[in-house]
Amino acid sequence: MSIKEKKNNYPIKSYNLNKDTLLKMYLTMIKIRDFENAITDVYSRGLMNGLSHLYIGEEAIATGVCLNLTSQDYAVSTHRGHGHLIAQGANLKKMMAEVLGRKTGYCKGKGGSMHIMDISKGILGANGIVGAGIPMATGAAYSAKYRGTDQVVVSFFGDGASNQGTFHESINMASAWKLPVVYVCENNLFGISVDLRKVTGNPNIADRAFGYGIPGVAVDGNDVLEIYRVTHTAFVRARKGEGPTLIECKTYRQKGHHIGDPGTVYRLEEEYKAWIKRDPIKTFRERLIKEKIISEEEIENLEKESRKLIDEAVQFAEDSPFPGPEEAYQDLFYETERVKER
Amino acid sequence: MTKKITYAQAILEAIDEEMDRDKNVLILGEDVGVLGGNFRTAVGLQEKYGDLRVKDTPISENSFLGMSLGMSLTGLRPIVEIMFSDFLLLAADQLLNQIAKIRYMSGGQVKVPLTVRTTIGAGRSSAAQHSQSLHAIMCHIPGLKVVIPSSAAEAKGLLKTAIREDNPVVFIEHKMEYNQLYEIPEGEYTIPFGKANVLREGSDITVIATSNLASKAVKAADELAKEGIEIEVIDPRTLIPLDRDTLIASVKKTGKVLITDEGYERCNIAAEIVMDLMSDIFYYLDNPPERLCLPNFPLPFSQALEFPLIPDQQKLYKKIKKMFGD
To answer: In this complex, do A136 and B142 lie within 8 Å of one another by their Cβ atoms?
Structure first.
């Protein structure tokens, strides 16, 4: 689906979602956007080291997908993972503290942006290796089936990961064994600088589902309601034991690969402008107001709430201590912290 | 009380007993189900425990090993069989970047109870891609425990400990051992990690021997005893953690040390062990430490070429004699 083929949006009312849910969706999306903007800010203020991959432009996907999950379910994220974590209810303060390498962060400063995990919420981790989370998600789904629960798993990955062996190997096994997992490919068109269309014979990732004997659906990755609708069907199917689904969310990475990469060298300016016009937050906001679901004032209140939460998270992180150097020697093995590795 | 069984049967007993004991233990890998394991270490398990707990996988090492990590994080205790350590290279990302590191990267949020069983050893005319002993690579990456049993009895007790361990364990089996008969204790027992086993006491030289080289070293020692050289043979059992205390005490007593291991000589675990012990043993040494490993060549197919490379009893005998000036 190119942008030109994109049909008009369906009326919001046709999705049968109550107002609270719609408000929650919008709040989640702006929390992700504000969090990412805050990262850019702390980075430019010199408070952050290392890499951070921003989710700006892709907020609708995590939001629409995770609305289907409970805290008993599992989510496996990527190097571009902040959105998935926020949508699955991760603590913003602990996230920001981790990004700033503080002791109070989710991983006590050992993981950083690329490895944030919240096992208490079933978030099995962001991951620094492209495609490496797909087998982990598939194994968690095997585990859910093994233990006889109705838990489901979402495996997030990008277009880049779809060309890793793990994509093929894992989806094949999930199909063979009807595992309760939904594979969500966030096709943002670029693997760092490489345009998917230049390195992939068929850039429609969802088409591959046919080869695995599972349903495959392509959806507008900037339309949170469509994403929710399509993934809802997939998760219901997974919970019923009918196996995996591959969903391709066609979207666009509005920023460079990571902070510091302007992204201008490899993207097509016209295409970039078209996608910016179709920004998932801007368009959802316009629809909510135009279709008189939420008043402008209510929206502004949500936006204030989001900014406050993010400001508090940044403040918490900045006020938090760094871990002591001795902590670098901890957390390698379970129960054996006092015993050296050998 | 002892009984006579093969090394393969000892492994099978350990898996069976642990699966019986804990319903969260499962085994997956290539040919573990219908066939009962390429080396007959899972015979009858699928019949007994069903297809979900004894899972034949497709030939997708990286992903089924990665799946085991997802299982391990969500309440299960998977045992994964990787048929040859050569094939573990296909799963290197999941083993070395994911499984080994996830606890540390997450700031200790998770435990990773997971046992990766794999095989090493040459001598079957299997050539360069089915004969390697690659355990040194696993030792290089922090976050894995590396266990290398020397006999059937050791294999059973150590494997049971591995399956109960809350950290990832790479369990190294020697494929030339599977059909060997051994006396092993009756009933249930476990062997702790980090405790080396002194197989033979001696006062003249310490030979640290891994895997099936331990029994070969004992035989070489018996031969050399007739010539008046008393050899202490130690099986380290686990490379990580390593029982430094036992090794140091022995070398301090004998003043000489030879390490033998079937991995390639370059970057062999022997070099690491010697260096690790050195600050404690340096002033007690009469000779430079020596090692007997696989020469730095891929393993050739023809037995006429293969056997000359593999460390064995005869090569140990010669090497030790040389250390005593002959």
So the answer is: no
